[in-house]
Amino acid sequence: MGAPQGFLAPAPARRVCGGGLEMTGAQYAERTLVAYRMHAGRAAANWARAQRKPSVFLKRFAAGLPPGGRALDYGCGIGCEMAWLRRLGFRVEGVDGTLDFAEAARRRNPGVRVIGLPFSACRLEGGRYDGIWSNAALIHLPPAVFRSELQKLRRALVPGGRLGLTLAWGRRKGVLTGDWIPGRYFACYTLPEALRFLKGWRVLEARTAVGEERSGRWIRILAEGQ
Ligand SMILES: C[S@@+](CC[C@H](N)C(=O)[O-])C[C@H]1O[C@@H](n2cnc3c(N)ncnc32)[C@H](O)[C@@H]1O
Question: Would you state the torsion angle of the CA atoms of residues 214, 96, 181, 193, taken in this order, to the nearest 10 degrees?
Fold first, then answer.
């Protein structure tokens, strides 16, 4: 998957749709999961075939974890990055709201806990993780929901635990059409805009990168909970 191209329409957190119905942030998140569910087989096969190598950024995230530490992959997809972290000796867990992906992540990581729930329904134990990795997943939440999920992730980290976060770079927010998985909501951010969501974190690294792991421009943020 590369950076998103071509939006149908900008989508604020609450938007009046046809027939007087209002679409909330939660509904955009649900709509994205429906899109993933409909195309799960093809997406899982593509991602498995791509066999991406661990990115420079994933390696930097892992380098800051204590040996054998506990790491959560939030929006783990089919669990490839979990598998890589596990091979390094970390105790990993995953969360993904697309049940087919959560199941594939379990198969790839036998014995590992993978929670198959939407982020909004996922309660995380406070102070449980030394590190939380979230690669190209919180991009599917409208900004207000993204903000509250980041707060939840901060509470789930041990003091000084680290977050590795990637976001799609850009200025638009909306539902993607004409894509290989149409119907997903994307929220893109510029770097200064993204950093405004990181109040209460100590940001260790924040940069944009082009074509490093996925095509297009992506934001990479490494931060510590305080
Ligand atoms: C672009 S994929 C990235 C997957 C994986 N992190 C990777 O880098 O390969 C986005 C992932 O986020 C998950 N996701 C999107 N919205 C979600 C939500 N509201 N709750 C839980 N998972 C969600 C999708 O199911 C999908 O696996």
Answer: -60
Token representation of residue 41: 């087989």
If one residue of 76, 95, 134 were mutated to test the ligand 1 pocket, choosing by the most ligand atoms within 8 A of its CB, it would be: 76
Cα-to-centroid distance, 46 and ligand 1 (Å): 15
- Residue corresponding to tokens 């305080």: 226
> Across residues 175-190, what is the average pLDDT?
93
Average pLDDT, the chain: 91
pTM of the model: 0.92
Test site for ligand 1: of 96, 99, 185, most ligand atoms within 8 A of the Cβ = 96
**Is the residue at 2 inside a domain?**
no
Note whether 47 and 107 are within 8 A (CB). Answer: no
Q: Would the pLDDT of 7 be above 80?
A: no
- Burial, 141: exposed, middle or buried (Cβ in 10 Å; 0-12, 13-18, 19+)? buried
CATH number for the domain harbouring residue 143: 3.40.50.150
d(CA 58, CA 135): 9
Quote the CA–CA distance of 207 and 32 in Å, as a whole number: 26
State how many domains the chain has.
1
Domain assignment present for 9: no
Residue nearest to atom 26 of ligand 1 (CA): 77
- The per-residue pLDDT for 20 is 38
